[in-house]
Amino acid sequence: MTGPPPLPTHLRILEGNRSRRPLNENEPKPKQVMPECPDHLSDEAKKQWNKLGKQLFDVGILTELDGDALAMYCDAWARWVNAKEMLDKHGAVFKSKNGFPALNPYFAVASQAFEQMRRILQEFGMTPSSRTRLGVEPKSGRSEMEKLID
Prior knowledge:
Elements: H1 9-14, H2 43-58, H3 67-90, E1 93-95, E2 101-103, H4 105-123, H5 128-131, H6 144-149
Antiparallel strand pairs: 1-2
Helix pairs in contact: 2-3, 3-4
């Protein structure tokens, strides 16, 4: 089957169900809970987890089941940062032992990490094109109790 992967129901609702196909009423609805940062992440990945995890949770995208996907993104982010630092330091091309130009191996590491990050960013609706399909209601600043009273 070709084409983009199907959007989760909550994202289809946010974008207004453009396809007009019936929504999956039986789709699992995980709790809106901030997952814990895994211990195995590097310091750089943990920094990204804290930054991005809070942002995703605040807009209502991150649930308790999304921790592994976020961890994969943060791990790819840390690899990309490290590879980019090495590329900035040594350059993308260097002179090999036999005198010919060769591509720095960190270029492949950075490229693979970049591609992994791009795919996961799209899953979370975090690219400009994937975000344009979403419509999030602005937070009113009112508590749930105030809403119930009205």
